[in-house]
Structures are given as C-alpha cells and as structure tokens.
Design brief:
This protein is α+β, with helices and mostly antiparallel strands. It is 38% helix and 21% strand. The protein contains 4 helices and 4 strands. A hairpin with a 2-residue loop joins strand 3 and strand 4. The protein is globular and about 40 Å long.
Length: 104
C-alpha cells in the first residue's frame, strides 16, 4: 500500500497561500491546503507568534503580511530568509505580483 506524504508542511502551505494573496480568507486557505478552518486558524496564529506573519484588521477582513526578512527556522547553513523561500517556490507573473507554484 502506498503511503501518502507531503514534501511541504501545512505551515509552509499556509504561508504560501498568504504570500500569494494577503487578503485571503481562512476558509479559502483551508480549502486550498485541505485543512480544517480550525487547523488553519491555529497555524496562522502560530505563524504570527513566530514572527513569520503579521496581521491587521480591515473592517471584517484580515490582511496578512509576510515578514520576508525573518530567518528560516531551523536555520539553513546559508542563513536563508522566508522571502527567499517564497521567491523560490512562487514565480512572479509580473512585477509585484506572485504566481501559483510551478508544479500546480
């Protein structure tokens, strides 16, 4: 029997969703990552607490900002930052716009 596994953690998947669309709703993140809304809320809170994301309320919506300069944990030998990971996994369609993952 084949074992299912993911190359990227749920935290990475959520982070990429937010990088792609900072105004994305929790429901949309959950659907895109195949997580529950409760699990998505937990992961977002953990990413905010760890400093990878910040959030601001705009009326009834939440806007997230990726802290691109935060070092990855655990640190890579090259001391890479979150923004470098996002840039590697998402190709820009046009200046200032993030695209879908290469293999999507």
């Amino acid at each position: 029997m084949a074992q299912n596994w993911d190359l990227f953690t749920n935290h990475t998947k959520v982070l990429l969703c937010v990088a792609r669309n900072p105004d994305i709703r929790v429901r949309e993140i959950a659907a895109a990552t195949d997580l529950t809304e409760r699990g998505t809320h937990r992961i977002l809170a953990q990413l905010v607490t760890a400093g990878y994301l910040s959030k601001q309320r705009h009326g009834r919506r939440t806007h997230y900002t990726v802290a691109r300069d935060v070092p990855l944990e655990p640190p890579l030998p090259e001391h890479r930052a979150v923004g470098e990971l996002i840039d590697l996994l998402l190709e820009p369609e046009s200046p200032g716009q993030l695209a879908k993952p290469r293999n999507a």
